[in-house]
Design a protein that fits this description.
- The complex is a heterodimer of chains A (499) and B (487).
- Chain A has 499 residues and is mostly helical.
- Chain A has a domain at 315-499.
- Chain A has 20 helices and 2 strands.
- Chain A has helices at residues 2-14, 16-34, 37-62, 87-110, 120-139, 143-162, 170-200, 205-215, 219-235, 244-251, 254-279, 285-311, 316-336, 340-371, 382-385, 387-401, 407-422, 425-451, 463-481, 484-497; strands spanning 68-71, 82-85.
- Chain A has a two-stranded antiparallel ribbon with strand order 1-2.
- The relative contact order of chain A is 0.09.
- Chain B has helices at residues 3-23, 28-52, 77-103, 109-127, 132-150, 156-188, 205-218, 230-233, 239-266, 268-274, 278-297, 301-322, 325-356, 367-370, 372-386, 393-406, 410-436, 442-446, 453-482, and strands spanning 59-66, 69-74.
- A two-stranded antiparallel sheet of chain B has the order 1-2.
- In chain B, a hairpin with a 2-residue loop joins strand 1 (59-66) and strand 2 (69-74).
- In chain B, helix 11 (278-297) runs antiparallel to helix 12 and helix 13 (325-356) packs antiparallel against helix 15.
- The radius of gyration of chain B is 21 Å and the shape is globular.
- The chains are: A mainly alpha (499), B mainly alpha (487).
Chain lengths: 499, 487
């Protein structure tokens, strides 16, 4: 008996991959049963902390380059569903869990300003489902399972975005827009999966890779790949499939915007990366041509065009949303270089940009608690009356620009190095041009914050609101100085993906 | 005390002083005394480093950002000279700033002194940087920290000036310098400053020319034409900022970086052999003459001094482009002597402003009679800038001329001579007007007198040092030769 208990204790470690995903999923319905606002928050927060704890254990386990696998229900793949954790997805699991925990701290003090109290329980349970979906997409190694979790996260995201309607009715049309686009994307994705299943008869990533390599140059698989790229392109807001994103980010409640901006598009990009490297053969000329001829130009266009558009936006949430599009361009560009350095820069930028953008959106949310809107002119002189929030915003802004000493600098450095390595001089110059545009739109806000006279004076927001904002801001600096978490893990991940 | 500890103290003390400024926000006298003490301590640490320096270029690593990219410091003669210069002048400027800020009734003193101290901290970081990455880090920090100083008044005009300031400095450094740094890192795999350069022929001749361009223009703080517009724009700042930062710390950080990159990244030998800087010699010469000509058209005293600074900075870029050790000697002396000369001129401009609220040269007729000390200091500073004996500035020009002869570029001598003549034409009229012309308004002039000793004493001291440098310049030369910076 004693030995069995010991075995059970050992098994707990082996069960981490599934616990990571299932914890928030199990908590979500419990919230609805209790239907108590504070308890819902508390349980969600505990759930998020548990996820964070698990993801830290996971990243420790895989940071030496090893791979954890878990067979759902004990069924071995290719028949059963496999969960597979390596350095590449462990870092994303960590990002998602940290952001969700921080966002939940923020929601405790800010949510009541945006959503009526009787809806809070449902909000939190949707939030947890969204978290489940995102974690599941990242953790699984079964392509149909990816689709299922993607839908879980997407459906709950539509609900979450629509919650902004209590402040601004336009959230409804934004959410509907997102619903239509997202569904088209999911459909493309599932058609792509169908093609692959048709050609290989398998849904497990490793298994497909093995069987596809025996098939050689197969038109069906190529069609499937094309469908998947378009489907994921929609989800990750690749220009020109981005039209849902600005409005969804602008009109969603701040908590949701923070969470989505930091995680959702990154998860979609991760799926694309996983498919390219673990399912398809990245050395395949079809894949390479698609990335070189299609994705790289689109990424560069996003980088430049979205930055220029951001300069002219007066609504700051929209401004940051367009900036997100440009930053997604950076990540996509890193991937489309199809080199180890490029992929590493892409992974690092996912994490760095996640923290940076969350810090920016969250400090905007803190401003919004006082000013009630996020037009640039309503922030006049807040640098004086809300010094801590403004300072956090400034740090986030500097990181977005890529000033040395901040997280953004590291990713920009890696991306430039990767571009130079592959010999794309023009691309390197365009990356720099795009970050100069970032200087313009960030500084526009900084000037308003610090150097214009305010008409009204506000009190600084509460400590509980400031705490999450500052945790994120400090992450922006920490990741710019200590890169062992980001760069080292990303290098490990690229080695696994490129093997 | 271990020397790496001293470096951290030198960088950390001004930053700490900045923090104390905010704490003693409400008690101005305590705050200003603390800052003065901090400035003295910083200078003391720089002196200790100078005295303890034994020529060993050891590197001290603070943190590793990525493999091959560290925040590291090292001590070498150029950096020692620069840190002594900046921290020493900080003491005088601080005394001056106390008098100026109170005399001219500027607002937000604590914020001002906070950013001022932190900018000194980043200057110290620049002078002891052990690799290009660390240098870039502090370089960018300096840009951002000085922004609130430029826009200090908060008026629309100040904001506009500050925006030009920031956009040119950030634009050049991110747009060009960063690209150059990454290019070097990518090709060579290291960014450490090593005497004789680290490039080791990994760049072809055309690539080398491009790389020189990326740094010459990318180091926007050196204000080389056509990226010089930020300097006149920054003159909206209070005068102590113009004096220390835009005559000494910031601009000298720029040309210091140029020299440092020339000696420790490119390597003088490989530069002079490849001829990659020949085009830069022409551009620097153009910048010298062009800025002097513009300066003559300016009636606003600070604007005239700003253009004069642009012209004088191009001397150092010129020294870099000549790529020989006489040039480095001349460039370093130019950094030192111009710092003393120009800070004198700016402080005098400030004391005229505090005493009379006048900013235009045409209004300053006859002022010399009521403010003799200020105007005499101005005269001495001006002579040093022009490069006439018996002032320190003459040696900088002397070695630059020797250097251009050695580099076989005789036309540079001509340019230097013309430039000195132009300097006479735009700097000395103010003194002549002040002493010899009759004031426009005789009753008004009687109400003016020298401002408080806080304001007139510092320029008098720096002017005297300009004079003393003429006799003691040999020490700087020996120091540089002994430790192998120049031969």
């Amino acid at each position: 008996m004693a030995s069995e208990i010991k075995q059970g204790a050992l098994e707990l470690v082996n069960h981490l991959p599934i616990l990571q995903v299932i914890t928030p999923m199990l908590i979500a319905p419990i919230l609805v049963v209790f239907n108590n606002k504070t308890l819902s928050w508390l349980l969600s927060f505990v759930g998020a902390l548990a996820c964070l704890f698990i993801s830290i254990l996971l990243i420790q386990a895989v940071s030496d380059g090893s791979i954890l696998t878990y067979y759902l229900g004990g069924w071995a793949p290719p028949i059963g569903i496999e969960y597979r954790i390596d350095a590449a997805n462990a870092i994303l699991l960590l990002l998602i869990s940290i952001i969700s925990a921080i966002v939940l701290i923020f929601s405790y003090s800010s949510l009541h300003a945006e959503i009526p109290e009787e809806k809070h329980t449902l909000f939190y349970s949707c939030f947890l489902l969204c978290l489940t979906g995102l974690l599941g997409v990242v953790a699984t190694a079964d392509i149909f399972n990816v689709f299922v979790f993607l839908e879980i996260s997407s459906l709950s995201t539509y609900v979450l975005v629509a919650q902004g309607a209590y402040l601004d009715r336009r959230a409804l049309s934004a959410s509907f827009n997102y619903l239509i686009m997202g569904t088209i994307g999911a459909t493309f994705f599932v058609i792509g999966i169908g093609y692959i299943y048709m050609a290989t008869g398998s849904l497990n990533m490793m298994d497909i890779a093995e069987r596809a390599s025996q098939l050689g140059d197969n038109r069906t698989i190529q069609a499937g790949f094309a469908f998947i790229v378009v489907g994921m392109g929609l989800k990750l807001a690749m220009v020109p499939l981005h039209v849902w994103l600005p409005n969804a980010y602008t009109f969603a409640p701040t908590v949701v915007t923070c969470f989505l901006a930091a995680t959702a598009t990154k998860v979609a990009l991760y799926v694309l990366i996983r498919f390219v490297f673990s399912v398809f053969n990245y050395e395949d000329s079809f894949v390479n041509e698609l990335f070189f001829l299609l994705l790289m130009p689109l990424a560069v266009i996003a980088m430049i065009a979205a930055s220029v558009i951001a300069i002219f936006k007066q609504n700051l949430k929209k401004l940051l949303a367009y900036s997100s599009l440009a930053q997604i361009g950076y990540m996509l560009l890193g991937l489309s270089l199809m080199s180890q350095k490029g992929l590493a820069s892409s992974l690092v930028h996912m994490v760095n940009h996640g923290f940076t953008k969350a810090a920016l959106f969250m400090s905007l949310g803190a401003f919004m608690l006082n000013t009630k809107n996020v037009y640039i002119k309503s922030l006049r002189g807040l640098g004086k009356s809300m010094p801590f929030t403004s300072a956090a915003f400034l740090i986030g802004g500097l990181s977005l620009i890529g000033v040395p000493g901040t997280a953004g600098f590291i990713s920009k450095w890696l991306l430039l190095e990767a571009a130079l390595e592959t010999g794309y001089w023009l691309v390197a110059i365009l990356i720099i041009v795009s970050s100069l545009f970032a200087v313009i739109y960030i500084w526009k806000i900084v000037e308003v914050l610090y150097f214009s006279e305010s008409s009204e004076s506000y009190d600084e927001v509460s400590v509980l609101t400031l705490m999450p904002v500052w945790i994120l801001a400090l992450f922006c600096i920490f990741l710019g100085i200590n890169t062992s978490l980001t760069v080292d893990v990303a290098n490990m991940a690229t080695e696994i993906l490129f093997k | 005390m271990p020397i790496e500890f001293l470096i951290f103290l030198t960088v950390f003390t001004p930053a700490l002083v900045g923090g104390l400024n905010l704490i003693f926000n409400r008690i101005p006298n305590v705050r200003d005394t603390v800052t003065l003490l901090g400035a003295l301590i910083t200078f003391y640490f720089s002196v200790i480093i100078f005295l303890g320096f034994d020529g060993q270029a050891t590197r001290y690593k603070l943190a590793t950002i990525m493999p091959g990219i560290d925040i590291s410091f090292h001590i070498e003669p150029l950096g020692i000279i620069f840190s002594l210069l900046a921290s020493g002048l900080w003491i005088l400027t601080h005394i001056y700033a106390i008098g100026y800020m109170r005399g001219a009734k500027e607002r937000n003193h604590s914020r001002f002194f906070f950013f001022f101290s932190v900018s000194i901290a980043s200057v110290m970081g620049i002078s002891f940087s052990g690799n290009l990455f660390t240098l870039f880090l502090f370089y960018e920090l300096l840009t951002l920290i000085t922004f609130p100083l430029v826009s200090h008044k908060g008026s629309t005009e100040a904001l506009r000036g500050a925006r030009v300031y920031l956009s040119i400095l950030l634009g050049t450094s991110i747009g060009l310098q960063l690209l150059g740094i990454i290019w070097i890192y990518f090709s060579v795999g290291t960014l450490d400053f090593v005497k004789g350069g680290i490039l080791n022929g990994s760049f072809g001749s055309l690539e080398l020319i491009l790389l020189v361009g990326l740094f010459a223009f990318g180091i926007g703080k050196a204000a080389l034409f056509p990226f010089h517009r930020w300097l006149p724009a920054a003159m909206v700042a209070p005068t102590p900022v113009s004096a220390l930062l835009h005559a000494v710390a910031v601009v000298k950080a720029g040309v210091f970086t140029v020299l440092k990159v020339g000696v420790y990244i490119f390597g003088l030998d490989s530069l002079s052999v490849s001829g990659a800087t020949d085009w830069l010699t022409w551009l620097a010469c153009f910048s010298i003459l062009f800025a002097s000509l513009i300066a003559m058209t300016k009636d606003n005293l600070k604007a005239r001094l700003a253009y004069s600074t642009i012209s004088q900075l191009a001397y150092v870029v010129l020294a870099f482009s000549l790529a020989n050790s006489l040039g480095v000697l001349g460039g370093t002396l130019q950094i030192v002597t111009h710092a003393f000369g120009k800070i004198t001129l700016f402080m005098c401009a400030g004391s005229i402003y505090v005493a009379t609220k006048k900013t235009d040269i045409s209004d300053m007729q006859g002022l010399g009679r009521v403010m003799p000390i200020t105007f005499l200091s101005f005269l001495i500073g001006a002579i040093s800038i022009i490069g006439l004996p018996p002032m320190g500035g003459s040696w900088a020009k002397w070695f630059l001329i020797l250097s251009s002869l050695e580099a076989d570029k005789q036309f540079v001598v001509l340019v230097l001579l013309i430039s000195s003549l132009l300097n006479i034409a735009y700097l000395l009229p103010l003194v002549a007007k002040g002493f010899y012309l009759n004031p426009k308004d005789r009753t008004e002039i009687k109400s003016f007198k020298e401002p408080s000793a806080f304001v007139w004493l510092p320029p008098a001291i720096t002017a005297s040092i300009s004079f003393l440098l003429f006799f003691y310049v040999g020490y700087i030369r020996d120091f540089m030769i002994n430790f192998g910076l120049v031969s």
